[in-house]
Amino acid sequence: MWKKLIALMLGAGMVCSGMTACYAEDTSFPWWKKTIAYEIYVRSFKDSDGDGTGDIRGIISELDHLENLGVGAVWLTPCYVSPQADNGYDIEDYYNIDPDYGSMEDMEELIAEAKKRDIRIVMDLVFNHTSDQCEWFRESSAGRDNDKSDWYIWRDPKPDGSAPTNWRSIFGGSAWTYDENRGQYYLHTFLSEQPDLNWENPEVRRALIDVADYWVEKGVGGFRLDAITYIKKPDTFDDGEADAEDGTAGIHAVTANTDGILDFLHEFKAEVQDGTDIFMVGEANGVLPEDLPEWVGENGVFDMVFEFSHVLIDAPSEMDWCKTRAWTLPEWKACFTESQEKTADTGGWYPVFLENHDQPRSISHFLPKDADRVAGGKALAALLLTMRGTPFIMEGEELGYVNVSWDDIDDYQDISTKNHYDFALAAGHSREEAMEGVHRFARDSARTPMQWDGSENAGFTTGTPWLPVYEDYKQYNVESEMADPDSLLNWYIALSRLRGAHEELVSGDYEELFHDEEQIFAFSREYGGKRAVVLINLSTEEAAYDDSCVEGAGLLLSTNRNSVKGKLAPLEAAVYETVQG
Ligand code: GLC
After folding, report:
1. Which atom of ligand 1 is nearest to the CA of 189?
2. Which of 260, 408, 413, 455 is most buried as measured by Cβ atoms within 10 A of its Cβ?
3. Cα(541)–Cα(257) distance, rounded to whole angstroms?
4. Does ligand 1 lie within 6 Å of residue 190's CB atom?
């Protein structure tokens, strides 16, 4: 009923922020296209009660930081009740908050407090799988004949008792686990503690729609749909072509983006989103730029999808972190440009991101080894905040975090990091080589606690942090960077204000410039008679370019006080603007 009411108001050009405040809005350019999004890894953002784990009250206490950055949407990693086998991506109860993180009252307060600052909370919906401790799975695994017996993906063993297929889970090992109660195997794309739901069953889809509706009613501003490309499985389950010495076949190649998946997602969108002002962004590993027109835009299923070509550019093998692939700047630029073009073609929108909680820190990932950390961070920030789309800042990215390089694998906590270390040893790599892979790709690097000040534990907790605070916290923290006009954090704030003041940086078309240039990432943004040109030197050498693209243009912002047209200092980022007439 209430959704219909909202649909009527939307028709009249009104948009509701949650269920209360309503304001006139250009519906072709909704709020989430104009804003900046920020990912909070809840466990690591701010601990309010000294147990060493970040929590919701901690987030409430630090909303000023997000407001300073001009953030309007905050994506929270899953904070529902969970046994935490995969830090919350294994959900036991979608309707309650994990006691480690607080209570539902805390969450309601966060939604309300954030809203007062024009910030909407975005929930992470993990719907490919649940926890094996979820009530639904307990019931399903209790026997072959109960109301939920078909809610997960169960198959009989092969005649010799082995797993139904040779599929390997994304975190390694068989994608099947045997269950004594049923005498059957269940499928899990990730850990065995994360059994995959059976989306073919309409009751499952209804249950998931109900979960999403519940959070829409709480007033959230959107959803990130986790691992969503895996929800549709093939019609028949056959062994895949082995891509590892143990004869297994990575499940990604077999199940990602299977035909028919979009039918499920169209249904979900119609049921959950239509008539609301929320946005939905899908985590779409396996969706290629050429697939984007079916996924976003007028006929798409999401407002945006995280497509991974640019972050996977150096990772040739899912299983072997020791293997990396050399890449060039033109190749990297092509990833962005192709995604931009494919999304724009059908009126879609792009979520610009360089980091998230699964990826290395961007300064370590994309810049030359000798790059100055602050200057390099500023160059990447210019890319993130001026490209067409909604920028997603990963907590800590605005402070200049780099990858951690701890000596011992036992210092790392993430299950996927530990597994990859073991795979590297099993593949014959030395301990040193395996650790190099860990230093390069460990998910822990994106998850170390937020550095608020120079006090013990960086002001993150008064207790013992669940993951060590990175050793550089005395220099890189919110308090010290706010006080330093040349800091990376203040550069982020300046870029955020620049976006707010120059509409072409938000709604303008994107056109890449100087594609073959090996040092410079450059593009223009054009809208309403204004044209901004963004020029970013991602190398540690000076770079020259043909300055006719900025003829007559005024300099809006640069990392270099002595910026000169036609030349960029090492790692310089500059934004120029021409106004017609
Ligand atoms: C997504 C999440 C990742 C998680 C996995 C399983 O890729 O981003 O952190 O481990 O799904 O839910």
Report:
1. 6
2. 413
3. 41
4. yes
Residue 501, burial from CB neighbour count under 10 angstroms (0-12, 13-18, 19+):
exposed
For residue 227, report the distance from its CA to the centre of ligand 1, in Å: 6
Sequence-distant (6+) residues with CB within 8 A of 209 are 268, 271, 272
The CA distances from residue 416 to 45, 85, 119, 176, in Å, are 21, 11, 32, 17
Tokens of 206: 């209804």
Q: What is the pLDDT of residues 539-553, one digit of tens each?
A: 999 999 999 999 999
| 201 phi, psi to nearest 5 deg | -85, 115
pTM score = 0.95
Instruction: Judge whether 226 and 128 are in contact, CB under 8 Å.
Output: yes
More confident residue, 172 or 377: 377
Closest residue by CA, ligand 1 atom 12: 89
Active-site option among 47, 106, 277, 283: 283
Of 149, 33, 108, the closest CA to residue 388 belongs to 33
Find the distance separating the first CA and the last CA of the chain, reported in whole Å: 50
* DSSP track, 97-140: E-TTT--HHHHHHHHHHHHHTT-EEEEEEE-SB--TTSHHHHHH
Answer yes or no: 542 catalytic: no
Q: Is the CB of 90 under 6 A from ligand 1?
A: no
Rounded Cα gap, residues 420 and 313, in angstroms: 18
Q: For the segment 396-409, what is each residue's pLDDT rounded down to a tens digit?
A: 999 999 999 999 99
Q: Is 283 a catalytic residue?
A: yes
> What are residue 444's phi and psi, to 5 degrees?
-60, -30
